[in-house]
Amino acid sequence: MKYLTFVIVALFFFCSVHGSARNNNWEPVKIHGQLQVKGRFLCNGQGDTIFLRGVSLGWHNLWPRFYNKKAVKWLKDDWKCSVIRAAMGAYEGVEDGYLVNPEFALNCVETVVRASIKENVYVIIDWHAHDFYPELAKQFFASMARKYGKNPHIIYEIFNEPTHEHSWERIKKYAEEVIAEIRKYDPDNLIIVGTPSWDQHVDIVANNPIVGYENIMYSLHFYAASHKEELRNRVAKALEKDLPLFVTECAGMEHTGDGFLDIPEWEKWTDFLEKNRISWVNWSISNKNETCSMILPRGSYEGGWDTEVIKPAGQKSRELIRFYNTVDKVYENLR
Q1: Does the reported pTM lie above 0.70?
Q2: Which CATH number covers residue 198?
Q3: What's the domain range around 204?
């Protein structure tokens, strides 16, 4: 009888949220509260293992128009995202990047952060870089922690994708410096640390993780048409050593962000992540002429997207996020 009740309620809730993009009862931070890491698992304020599932906005300096409160609200209400990632480009010589135009970068990121807090959705503040800028990173994250660290919505991603040229020892030293700076002002919100070779050598990190700090996780990135069983096997080795992982960027196409969309392999990855209780964020809300960009150029920058303006990668992302987060919501209601 209990199982039948669950099925009936699940079907009712599934139909109700899928039948109306205006359902505003989805408030992940109210559901889960303060995030914490226990062993290798992400947990809610009560200590129960949870998942976060959502999307990343594209680089702020390339797609700043998506960095607005209406887009955040739509991704929360219609896509049922429990987390949204603000990817702040931090590169030398990049127009409107943080290193060139910090005022513009901060305006973009903080617009998304404030909107996420208002909508009660978790938000990843992503230092979207491929190289080290430790002093600038410490300054930036200290500022974010001072302003927003009191809110349980905040997640700090302190280095998007270290490359194959960056050893774990060097990444770790950088991370420890930035973490120490954040913890001066924010003692408990989740911090995500980048891993070697574009966030794929998590097995190396598992042999020598950061110690002395709580609520730390490590990023894993994959693109399903390029990264397959070999990477999953590497991840499995890290999980055997209880390394806490968070997929802050993934998608179904090739690692370039373009090429064909490998749906079967993408679903294998999703099954793997769900089985191992690993949160995931899909890339990206943007409108470039490439496979990973989820919105057509004629689509609004402020949400309100029907399926005609959502590209195949976006349609699949939305389908997966809505399905899995809906199941979680029903489960929470029945506990």
Answers
A1: yes
A2: 3.20.20.80
A3: 29-334
